[in-house]
Amino acid sequence: MYIVILAGGSGTRFWPLSRKKTPKQLMSVFGGKSMLQRTLERVLPLKPKRVLIVTNAMQAEETTRQLEYVKGVPVDIIAEPVARNTAPAIGLAASIIAYHDPDGVMAVLPADHYISEEDGFCRVITQGRNAAINGYLVTLGITPTRPETGYGYIEADNAFRQHGPFPVKRFVEKPNREKALEFLTAGNFFWNSGMFIWKACTILDGISRYMPPLAVSLSKLVFSESVWELRDLKPQIEAIYGEIGGESIDFGVMEKADNVQVIPADFGWSDVGSWSAIPEVADADDLGHVAINAKEVISVDAGDCLVYGDNRLVALVGVKDLIVVNTPDALLVCPKERAQDVKKVVEELERRGLTEYL
């Protein structure tokens, strides 16, 4: 099996910790290792043949530095010159794998997700590998625990099977709360995790059928005779990315294909999409505070706050449900309920030309 890790995101909702050169996946959001490092280490028990990291040119140097310590499995860094969403990144990785191993099974994983039950994760990936060998496009669907309106959903056809993988009936965009409640009650809807398993040739066939312009561009790649010498591809990748548009693999292929299966997954998953998601996956103290990288937290008539302290003492007085993030050059304070609006700060910084804070 090959592992493809998509690591080119910007993580604007995690400002000021996340910046363009060091976005969320390259940061130690929980303390200790970065989310990218945790993602890579999570797949090592699967004994992959290779790991391909698709990132962008701005983040490639730091990505390479963070993964230099990995031994026992080859790790290739593929730098995209510009962001083009997930379909081109996946198509590029699949083309590289297929040149060497057309029937090679590849698991595609985001670099910035949290998973608490790593043994369970590996079991589900192995289950997906077996379905992928048989020619299916496999996606992992997270068993919903609440009527979440921030995720897309996958409707499974589970009428004739007790256990997955199940055929996919449809993909559903982020619903309103009423619809989300319906999905939760129905029992055959799952959160779209953005994790996939398929053979390289299978996804390339899907791209050829449903995204022919992208397939034509990818077909222009000319590979070196040297095995896995990817540096030679840089000018070719730049040329291809100059002519293709951006599209997600969900919209481009998965929503159109008829050979899609979903495996229900329940391994303590979170996409950690914003600061407000941290309390879901980190332990709180007796007052409900979650503190990360804080030397000490002093709380006076305060509760249920998230603090990222940059190794400083943080004092909270008479406040509740706040996010407080301290970094060497910027400080964020906002209510938890407004966590999604942190990206607006980034937009305002860009508008004002304050690039040193981006």
Automatic annotation (TrEMBL):
Q: What class of enzyme is it?
A: transferase
Q: Which reaction does it catalyse?
A: alpha-D-mannose 1-phosphate + GTP + H(+) = GDP-alpha-D-mannose + diphosphate
Which keywords belong to this entry? Answer: GTP-binding, Nucleotide-binding, Nucleotidyltransferase, Transferase
The segment(s) forming the Nucleotidyl transferase domain are 4-283
- InterPro entries annotated for this entry? GMPP_N, ManC/GMP-like_b-helix, Mannose-6P_isomerase_type2, NTP_transferase_dom, Nucleotide-diphossugar_trans
**In the record, what terms sit under GO molecular function?**
GTP binding; mannose-1-phosphate guanylyltransferase (GTP) activity
UniProt record, GO biological process: GDP-mannose biosynthetic process
Top-level taxon in the UniProt lineage: Bacteria
Answer whether the UniProt record assigns the keyword Nuclease to this protein.
no
Calcium: is it a keyword of this entry? no
Task: Tell me the ranges covered by the MannoseP isomerase/GMP-like beta-helix domain, including all copies.
Answer: 296-349
Q: What is its EC number?
A: 2.7.7.13
Q: Which SUPFAM superfamilies match?
A: Guanosine diphospho-D-mannose pyrophosphorylase/mannose-6-phosphate isomerase linker domain (SSF159283), Nucleotide-diphospho-sugar transferases (SSF53448)
User: Which family does the record claim for this protein?
Assistant: Belongs to the mannose-6-phosphate isomerase type 2 family.
Identify this protein by name: mannose-1-phosphate guanylyltransferase
Q: What is the lineage of its organism?
A: Bacteria, Pseudomonadati, Thermodesulfobacteriota, Desulfuromonadia, Geobacterales
